[in-house]
Amino acid sequence: MAMNTRIFLSLIAFVAITSVISIAFAQSPQPSVPSTTTTTPAVSAPATTAASPDPAEMMKQMMELSKLNENHKLLADLAGTWSYTVKMMAPGEAPSTSTGSCTRKPIMNGRFYVADFSGSMKMPGGDGKMKDFAFKGTSIEGYDNVKQKFVSSWADNMGTGIMMSEGTYDPATKTFTYNGEVEPVPGMKTPVREVIKVTDKNHHTFEWYENRGGQDVKTLEINYTRKK
């Protein structure tokens, strides 16, 4: 049943895409596309004619791009249940610490990984006094074969926005580096950089940098240990 459903949905998407492409090509001439180069292997573009793309080649390319590869395996290595310690830093103040736990599991047959975070931290209340705050957060991570980048989304109970970021992986240092942007209040957009370094199969670290006045300032550090 699941396989039939996937095939059915793929056919629907294929018919819709080819219909749109056929209409577009019939209505307007096609501009030339500049050549590009990539640093990682990419699926070659389908053969085309002057009139329209070859539907069979296009479908073949779509199926190839849906496959898992070694990049998805890198994310699989971070699956499991973890305990973590958070260190939050602010200029001119002593770092504050808190703890929590995280469970990361695969969805869509390993194409994506969902991580649920929970913890407790001190936050100022309405009266200005520090109070215990129960933190919840969720991320979805994957590797986009079309963009050839790692992709991530983040949402938590401290806001109503969803942060999107894209990243790369350096095998020499076993480090993921993501770039994104946050806007805590209207008009206050801040570029951010996330660095995840894998120490070994049971330990990894997370560092959060905010771009302030053209300089990256580390304001958050998390150390993860796999639960036995």
Structural key phrases:
single chain; 228 residues; alpha+beta; Lipocalin; 10-stranded antiparallel β-barrel; 10 strands; disordered N terminus
Description:
- The chain has about 230 residues and is of the alpha+beta class.
- The protein has a domain at about 70-225: Calycin beta-barrel core domain (Lipocalin), CATH 2.40.128.20.
- The protein contains three helices and ten strands; from the N terminus they run H-H-H-E-E-E-E-E-E-E-E-E-E.
- Strands 1-2-3-4-5-6-7-8-9-10 form a ten-stranded antiparallel β-barrel.
- A hairpin with a 6-residue loop joins strand 5 and strand 6.
- The radius of gyration is 22 Å and the shape is globular.
- The chain starts with a helix and ends with a strand.
- The model is unreliable at about 1-45 (pLDDT under 50).
Please outline the major beta sheet. 10 strands, antiparallel, barrel
Count of strand segments: 10
Give me the CATH architecture of the domain at 72-226, please. Answer: Beta Barrel
CATH superfamily of the domain at 72-226: Calycin beta-barrel core domain
**Terminal residue distance:** 36 Å
CATH level 3 topology of the domain at 72-226 = Lipocalin
Class derived from helix and strand content:
alpha+beta
What is the share of helical residues? 10-25%
Q: Oligomer, anyone?
A: single chain
> Helix and strand string, N-terminal first?
HHHEEEEEEEEEE
**Global morphology:** globular
Radius of gyration (CA) equals 22 Å
Unreliable spans are 1-43
* Approximate strand percentage: over 45%
Strand order of the largest sheet: 1-2-3-4-5-6-7-8-9-10
In CATH, what is the class of the domain at 72-226? Mainly Beta
Q: Please give the count of helices.
A: 3
Q: Report the average pLDDT across residues.
A: 83
